[in-house]
Amino acid sequence: MPPRLQLLSRATAATALSQPSSYQPLAPFLYPCLANHRCASILASLSDVKGAYNKKIRVGRGPSSGYGKTAGRGTKGQKAHGKVPVGFNGGQTPDWVVNGTRGEHQHFSTEMSPINLNRIQFWINANRLDPSQPITLKELSASRCIHGVRKDGVKLLGRGKEELTSPVNIIVSRASAEAIAAVEKVGGTVTTRYYTDFAIKKIKKGEMDPIHSLQSRIVLAPESDEGAEAAADALVEEKKRYKFRLPDPTSRKHLEYYRDSAKRGYLSHMVAEGHGPSLFFRTPGMGSRSGKKVVKKTGGQVASGSDNRLW
Q: CB burial class (10 A; 0-12, 13-18, 19+) of residue 93?
């Protein structure tokens, strides 16, 4: 630091005028407070924040850089002269072809992210999940309760069912019977609904409704004007809020699963009373197949068959 003789002389003169007989010099730590100008040494010590930038590594500029001559590539060889594709084996058959995966691949298997009841309760206790709101795969992924959602969605499992104490309304792709019983025991609900890989990506971005689709909107009185207006208003509101619409299943395998009330499928309201979720096999004891006529033994009257089915 530069000498502070000017400050010292000013402080001495001011003190001599006020108290000429009893002069006490100021303490050294008060000298900077009396100054109204900056010292040039402060500007000389300015520097960037540590870690604000990284020094560029200059390779091939001589031995002094530490990466000179061969620039860290070693001496000679194919990798010293250029890049080599991943898996390149000198021109012969690659290892991933010679020693590749062997065995049968199940094309119709489902890939789902598992989630257990004890983990959900732990997240609720930590205030990372709100039990008063429906819990979908969007909330599970955003709260990091599950790390990534696979292409077929989330499956609810029953491990730690005795730890579940909060009633929750959870919407997942599938759920085990043990998990369904545990959730409903504490006053909650479980709904299984259909998701696709495209839908999961859009739901996580907030561009698709994670719960409602065309078939999941239950209109109590579709033939009345009030029911039709309510359904139309719901669709208009959905188009304003979301860019994409949640799809519904089209294959028989998925349709039969989500029509099953035992699995708490969201399409179970489409199944008539007394009928099963199957679209091909008729329920035992429910009469003949559709399209045929049955002649009753008593009276000889002709009765029409049941309603038309998809198969």
A: exposed
Q: Which residue(s) pair with 295 in the sheet?
A: 302
pLDDT by residue for the chain (311 residues), tens only, comes to: 455 545 445 555 555 555 555 555 666 666 666 655 555 677 778 888 888 888 888 888 887 777 888 888 888 888 888 888 888 888 899 888 898 888 888 888 899 999 999 999 999 999 999 999 999 999 999 999 999 999 999 999 999 999 999 999 999 999 999 999 999 999 999 999 999 999 999 999 999 999 999 888 754 444 556 667 777 777 788 888 899 999 999 999 999 999 999 999 999 998 988 889 998 888 787 665 554 544 444 454 444 444 555 54
Query: Per DSSP, which regions of 63-105 are E strands?
Result: none
User: What is the reported pTM?
Assistant: 0.61
285-291: Cβ within 8 A, 24+ apart: none
Of 149, 163, 162, the closest CA to residue 115 belongs to 149
Q: Which domains does the chain have, with CATH numbers?
A: 5-44 (no CATH), 113-252 (3.100.10.10)
Distance between CA atoms of 142 and 210, rounded to whole angstroms?
13
- Round to whole Å and give the CA distance between 124 and 118: 10
Amino acid at 301: Q
